[in-house]
């Protein structure tokens, strides 16, 4: 006698199908979390560049202000004089040195005023507009500071070496302290130019 086989069909109710739905939707949620973690390091690197930007701006303030103060306080009077002449050298005797003081003072003030913009970039590192603004303004300051430092450097060179073709004698043998101070101011101004150029590169990398 053959045994009767019985087949029982089990059907799923709509509630059971709904209960399984979250299991099928789980993988997209995990992939979304993975995308968030991939973006996190990028924002962290931009924030780090913004912090370094603030530090460089503080350093630029120190060098630009130091250059302006050093040049603006430079004068020397020789201990000998005649009945009609007194041998004295001051920075404002030359327009190039006067422009140097004004330009470096403007650069120092500019760097101080742009620190809040850099702080905004730290708080919101993905903003693009503040960094584009800083690139433009930093480039203008590079041009201004380079022009001032280059003009003063040419005068300092003549003061140290003179020019035999134009019959300009070197004066640094007599005004030694004056030449040392103005030379240090020019070096500090060129350091400010380097700081500004690095700031432009940092802002470009952070875009």
UniProtKB/TrEMBL annotation:
Domain of life: Eukaryota
Keyword Plastid: no
GO cellular component, one term: plasma membrane
Occurrences of domain Casparian strip membrane protein (ranges): 47-195
Membrane topology value: Multi-pass membrane protein
Compartments, as annotated in UniProt: Cell membrane
Keyword terms, alphabetized: Cell membrane, Membrane, Transmembrane, Transmembrane helix
Sequence ranges of Polar residues compositional bias: 1-12
Transmembrane segments: 54-74, 94-123, 135-159, 185-206
Residue ranges of the region described as Disordered: 1-21
Keyword Transmembrane part of the UniProt annotation: yes
Major subcellular location class: membrane
Pfam name, any one: CASP_dom
Family recorded in the similarity comment: Belongs to the Casparian strip membrane proteins (CASP) family.
Oligomer status and interactors: Homodimer and heterodimers.
Annotated protein name in UniProt: CASP-like protein
Organism: Cynara cardunculus var. scolymus (Globe artichoke)
């Amino acid at each position: 006698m053959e045994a009767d086989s019985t087949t029982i069909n089990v059907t799923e109710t709509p509630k059971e199908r709904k209960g399984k739905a979250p299991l099928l939707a789980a993988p997209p949620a995990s992939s979304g979390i993975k995308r968030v973690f991939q973006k996190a390091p990028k924002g962290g690197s931009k924030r780090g560049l913004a912090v370094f930007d603030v530090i460089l701006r503080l350093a630029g303030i120190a060098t630009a202000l130091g250059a302006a103060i050093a040049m603006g306080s430079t004068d020397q009077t020789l201990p000998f004089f005649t009945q009609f002449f007194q041998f004295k050298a001051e920075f404002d005797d030359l327009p190039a040195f006067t422009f140097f003081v004004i330009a470096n003072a403007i650069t120092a003030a500019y760097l101080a005023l742009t620190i809040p913009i850099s702080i905004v970039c730290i708080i919101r590192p993905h903003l693009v507009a503040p960094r584009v603004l800083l690139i433009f303004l930093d480039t203008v300051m590079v041009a201004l500071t380079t022009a001032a430092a280059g003009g003063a450097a040419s005068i300092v060179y003549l003061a140290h070496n003179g020019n035999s073709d134009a019959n300009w004698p070197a004066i640094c043998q007599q005004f030694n302290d004056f030449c040392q101070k103005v030379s240090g101011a020019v070096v500090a101004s060129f350091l400010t130019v380097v700081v500004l150029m690095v700031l432009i590169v940092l802002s470009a990398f952070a875009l």
